Amino acid sequence: MEFVVHLRSAVSLLGRFPALAGVDLDVAPGEIVLVQGPNGAGKSTLLRTCAGLLPVVAGTAEVLGHDLVVDRRTVRRRVGLLGHATGLYDDLTVADNVHFWARAAGAAPADAEAAIDRAGLAGRLHDVQVARLSAGQRRRTALAVLLARRPELWLLDEPHAGLDVDGRELVDELVKGAAAAGATVLLASHDLDRATALAHRSVTISGGTIVSGAPADVAATTAATAAAAEVAHVS
Amino acid sequence: MFRDAALVAGKDLRIELRSRVGLNQVAPFALLVLVLFAFALDPDRGVLRRATPGLFWITVMLATLLAVQRSFAAESADGTRDQLRLSGLDPAGIFLGKLVGIAAELLALEVLLLGGVAILYSAHLRELQLLLPTCLAAAVGLGAAGTLYGALVAGVRGRETLLPLLLLPIVAPVLIGATSAFEAALGGADLTVAQGWRWLALLIVFALVYVGAGILAFGSLLEES
Amino acid sequence: MTSAPANPLASGSEPDQTDAAPVTERRALEGTGSRGSRIVGTLALISLAATALYGLVLSPPDANQGNAARLLYIHVPTATVAYLAFGVTAFGSAMYLWKRTEFWDLLAGASAEVGVVFTGICLLTGMLWGRPIWGVYWVWDARLTTTLLLFVLFLGYLALRRVLVGSPSRAKWSAVAGIVAAVDIPIVHYSTSWWNTLHQGTTISPQKTQMGGLMLFTLGLGFLSFLLVYWWLMIHRFRLQYLETRLDEVGLDTAIAERRAEAGRAGTSGPTAAGPELAEVR
Fold first, then answer.
1. pLDDT digits over C216-273, tens only?
2. Contact residues, B window 117-146, toward C, CB-based 8 Å cutoff
3. Which residues contact C123 (CB under 8 A, 6 or more apart)?
4. Which residues neighbour B179 within 8 Å (Cβ) at sequence distance 6 or greater?
5. Which SS3 state, helix, strand or coil, does residue B42 take?
6. pLDDT of C106-124, one tens digit each?
7. Does C259 map to a domain?
8. Of A48, A91, A138, which to mutate for an interface test with B (greatest number of B Cβ within 10 Å)?
9. Does residue C18 register a pLDDT over 50?
10. B-chain residues within 8 Å CB-CB of C97?
């Protein structure tokens, strides 16, 4: 099977610090995988590495078929990253932001409007400057940007943080919808109850390595996972 | 590349439209500088009129620093730099887009300042066919060098003080060239209009060199390692 | 004020090729000094002493300029070496962008540091010379103006290097800044020379000095001295920068081992508790 994320002994650097110190991870298409682990374990770094933002200096790292050791740029257009920062322009309105990033990714204006609707930002908030939004509304705008860009790999860093009950429900729905539509999701979260319910499986990262859930561990349960993924597709 | 440039330039001009920092802060600041020069140089003795071209371009340089800082403040806030790298936009296109945004603001400011020196310093605006291309070439040159250094210092500590130190010596030829071209056009100095065209050529060379350098180097500046 | 023709004494000691040799032994360094650097340093001292002797005592005062001409034995060599130093910086920056090896980055950085010092000496001696000969410390001559701007440009370059210490982008961004600054120099030179000729006519041109054999020899000695000083400073600055970057850096293997060891420590509290839920199937 062709994996969406395929890492073997991958080492990536934050400055000179090996924040990922040899990671083995396989993620199959359509999977929702939870990355858990203590603060500073390397969760965010793992997501940023998969996004092609950090240099991989040793090991193998392939994302969506692109070798990140050789070229980190081409893969970027195809992934969506929702990090702690929202990546929005404060002076622009919600609609301006979503339309700009959507067009940059080659999406149509109609996609941008649909994404704004889906994120619950239609109506009053549509033309409000992002600087005037609450933290939760900012996160929703960032979600709308992510939706509009239609990434094939979703990288969500604490997607539930700062959102109200409706917002967290929305995240879950969007993630399930994306996976059902064939996208792959990697999410890091401390909200373990909600995230484990959402994910097909979880891996634990600590000290920059996968301490459980690495491909060797998974091999035994691969059949079960694949079956579960099928079930998820059907439901 | 050009599609991406248009997109980024449109975004930057829209930021200006929404925030109006250029209109509400930079333009009044520039006019204030013209007034301060008048206080410093004693308007009665004609010093002001002779120094008009130099004062005009010094004012534009100061405004350039503000415009560049403002343009890159947006790109370093709240993860927009990462988002820009993830966007798949061509780095050369991003460079051209930021450049067009800054140059457009500078050009508008230069036109405003022309009115300012005509009224406050009683400058006779003649030879517009030389004056206006000079404004344009200088705006592009300043915008290109400014965009390069703006991106360079956007992520570092103390960027407010580092940018002038890096940018002002680089754009010294623009100050010399544009001032001389203005002197040629406005008369008063011992320059002829024909000599003014030569200075315009220098400004164009400067602009081309730095647009080229930016297109080549901007990809490296966006990447962190 | 004209730079002397290629000097037989100086041409044998082009620094950038030869100083690669001591630099390759750098892994064993404990300080920045080594046998090679001490030899170069001693030669530089002897040569400087000889320049002082010839420049101040043995060479005759100039027919037109008198004793002030003795400043040129320092001024002209430092100017030339400064331009050479910035040339090395530009070359090192370009080579870094091509090869991406630390050597070129450190070479560019070290050369800019030494170049700024030499430019400073050159400007200072030039002003001291200008006061008696031209009557003023400074004229807005094209060469002077260009040199002054060069000085400021590379001060900015060094300031950028300083704020980027510890950043993974330091070498690359510095290289871009070095090239962008170097590209400006010809434009600055053309604009200042046009500006100067159009505005002021030709400035007070330096009186042509007829250089006798002894004076030429002394000037050559000056070139040799300042090239040796440049070389010697380069060895030390290069090595110092190299050691500085090593200071906070343990080898990647060690760093990876340390990072992986965190998993064991943290494991007692957090993640192993989640162990049984691994590969959980929904």
1. 888 899 999 999 999 999 999 999 888 887 776 667 778 888 888 887 654 443 333 3
2. 145
3. C147, C148, C151
4. B53, B54, B56, B57
5. coil
6. 999 999 999 999 999 999 9
7. no
8. A91
9. no
10. 220
Tell me if A96 and B11 make a contact (CB, 8 A cut-off).
yes
What's the pLDDT tens digit per position in B9-65? Answer: 999 999 999 988 888 899 999 999 999 998 898 777 688 888 899 999 999 999 999
Shortest alpha-carbon distance between residue A122 and chain C (Å): 33
ipTM of predicted assembly, 2 dp: 0.89
Domain that holds residue C58: 8-250
Q: Residue B162: its chain C contacts at CB < 8 A?
A: 156, 159-160, 163
Q: How far is CA C227 from the centre of its chain?
A: 12
Distance of CA B180 to CAs A127, B65, B190, Å? 47, 21, 10
Whether B170 and C180 lie within 8 Å, measured CB to CB: yes
Among chain B residues, CA nearest to A103: B7
Mean pLDDT within C119-137: 89
Return the pLDDT at A14.
Answer: 83
- Interface A–B counts its CB contacts (< 8 A) at 71
**How many residue contacts between A and C have a Cβ separation below 8 Å?**
108
pLDDT at C280: 33
- Amino acid occupying residue A3: F
Question: In chain A, what are the domains?
Answer: 5-89+152-234 (3.40.50.300)
CATH code of the domain containing C46: 1.20.120
Residues on chain C touching A180 (C-beta within 8 angstroms): none
List % helix, strand, coil for chain C (3-state, nearest 5): 75, 0, 20
